[in-house]
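Key idea: predict the complex, not the pieces.
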Amino acid sequence: MVRTRFLLSAAFAVMIAGSQAFAAQSEPQVLGGTPEQAEPAAMEKEAAPAESAAAEIPHEAAAPAAAAEHGAEAGGAASHSGGHSVIAEQSWSFDGIFGTYDRAALQRGFQVYKEVCSACHSMSRLAYRNLADLGYTEAEIKAIAADVSITDGPNDEGEMFDRPGRPSDHFRAPYVNIQAAKYANNGAFPPDLSLIAKARHGGADYIYAILTGYEEPPANRELLPGQYWNKAMNGNVLAMPAPLNAGQVAYGDGTDQSVDQYARDVAQFLTWAAEPHMEVRKRTGVKVFLFLLVFTGVLYAAKRKVWSKVH
Amino acid sequence: MGSGHRATFKNPVVNWIDERLPIFTLMQKEYGTFPTPKNFNYFWSFGGIAMTMLILMIVTGIFLAMHYTPHASMAFGSVEHIMRDVNWGWMLRYLHMNGASFFFIAVYIHIFRGMYYGSYKKPRELLWILGVIIFLLMMATAFMGYTLPWSQMGGWAATVITNLFSAIPVVGDSIVALLWGGFSVDNPTLNRFFALHYLMPFVIFAVVFIHVWALHISGSNNPLGIDVKGPQDTLPFNPYYTIKDTFGLAVFMLAYVAVTFFFPNMLSHPDHYVQYDPMVTPAHIVPEWYFLPFYAILRAITFDIGIPFTDIVFIPAKLGGVIAMFGSIALLLVLPWLDTHPVRSARFRPLYRQFLLLLVASVVVLGYVGAQLPEGIWVILGQVCTAYYFGFFLIILPILSRKEVAKPLPHSINEAVLKEQSLKAEASV
Amino acid sequence: MSTKAASHSHDTPPEGGTRRDFLYLTAGAFGAVGTGIFAWPFIDSMNPSADTLAMATTEVDLAPIEAGQAITVVWRGKPVFIRHRTAEEIASANDVDVASLRDPQPDSERVKKPEWLIMVGICTHLGCVPLGQKKTDPKGDFGGWFCPCHGSHYDSSGRIRKGPAPKNLNVPEYTFTSDTTIRIG
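Result:
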């Protein structure tokens, strides 16, 4: 019996070792900031002039192949090329197995997105109907959607036409296509934010860190026009100017209207947008796990009973 | 199959069917009364666990395929559609995604079990080879599944892995174009990968069937590695191992459920949530964790192989890496002839045991190395572990086969079990 | 079944039997219940997804349709016939002995406003789309629609009059959101 228990734990030790090997592999990227965090979408710009105005690209990574080959920042070793990113872990209401989203924060975060971020960033995978998750009523959602004009068609004359949005419409994108987005932003493409919380190491912590990470560049670093210094960005240089200013978005619920609060709210909103079913997932998980745990106990008792007579 | 003794059943419907098609007799013979060594430990549960994972992968996969669109411009969106709009779609997708990892966990433990207790030795060589074939098919299936969401990670993994074939002299580039169905990884590639990803699990299932068939011809090995001498050494499979394996399965499922529902992206990568862009390679592409050791072996060959001090190169580094990677798996196929030591179980082969555990350690290190950027210490470490990997199979095993003196084997399974029980009774007194 | 037989045939110590049977039964019940619950998400995943349900209504502007004209709009992936009926068509729809019909239904039950007939354009026989929307189409023996697949004739109220179809053409749920616009669904 002792032996079998040992072997069983050994089996799981191997499993855990496997997963830890992987976790360890992703760990340094969170803290050390490998070039991986560069906006892949932004890197798309092929034109050399655009490089000077790289959107959210550390310029070490502007030549992605080179960055991959020479790997300026291997493993956890902090970069020597100046691309030190600082992403501190925050505490969130959705942390942990029982964590849930804070509806009020989600609504505020949506407000920040709508009034600030949506000028440049699309969220094409969300539909207005999804806002029901944030606690908005059907009438409110209809009003939010109707504020937006959506291009539909073709009509009977073969023409496209504009109409007020409906709940079933997806969030309207600020630009009609990637080319238009790049053209309007000095060649840098503001990435779609629908999945951004899952598409970056650190998720909400990363978003919060970027939004609150703007600083004056160090004296020895000179920035080109259209570049901004951000301590959280990998490579520290990005093309997005600090988007948030205190008091910029008027909250209706008396919440503090600081950059820090805006950043927290929008980070939570974007986390929800990337993983809208998180709450039901965790709730289901708890039920499934408990059921399985009791089942395992019954099986263990049955197994003991069956094997008790073996000589 | 039709011949032989047929059992009788109390249930008249069962009996009626069995008279015409003795499927219940077969089930009872193979899974009911099937004589099974009485001394299995929980390592022996992992075959059944792997089988369960295969079925779970097929079922979740079929339901995902009902919502997935294998088109370059729609695949990523259709996966998001599954995650957001399809009823329970997020669960099916996360079960499938993490199921692949847990399938590999189960199979790796199963393979380790086979190596530790010498299950590949006579008369189970073919059983072992069938298992290696299953492993190869799994790798191909998992790789193609990885590309289906058409993410940065998947698309570039497809590009890198298919480019391995360009290392083949003369015909390499033609083979790559054939695999792609074009001049880059694009819609034709995605379409065929989807078709094959849907097909392969059924091929795996067929090979698993033959694998189990072969197992039931030779009978199971056991932790002592000695042959069954008679009925006193065995127990009927049911209820003893049905209940024990189900319990083992349930414990395994607890871990699987915890990861799937609470940390579903733990084993994934952020670039899996960025749509594939053929113009931009992510700075750090890595395969899924279960491929990392082999990926590290691929990258360990950083040098051309030729005649030293001349410019004559027989095998350029790129081809060398590909050969090493495929060779590392091919070695498993011939393992029964590399290790010809008459004793199976590592319990009685202290030297083999140590070298084997060192191999496991080096594979774990290789897995870690595979996740790092190929530079500095990681290159050296990868090369050392790769050297050990090949050395273990090609040098250490043949030498041990001739030289290693095994500890005395117990007379029979029954005797060993009784001895262990009396020792335990003594200890408790 | 075979497993049961096998377990009984082997060792059944009389005193441990009940406790073992109880554990077996409990484990079996857990397994059965668990499998049953686990099957539900798979089945439910085949039901219409959230985006499909969100698109379940269609709005139509009736203003451009003149009397005697008909248009076909798509609603939930199905054709919906909208006919602006003429006075004669309305009269002929009402000039029928309702009791004699295969699927008895007065015209007044099938319309909200007599000049607008709105129906799902799918034959109740085996799902073909009947002809009769275009001026040049055959309209059957009763001045309505004619299904070319198996020869069902519908009248100017969309009721089955002749042929194999069992029911009248289905009237979807719709509301007039204004005098000239409707929302179907």
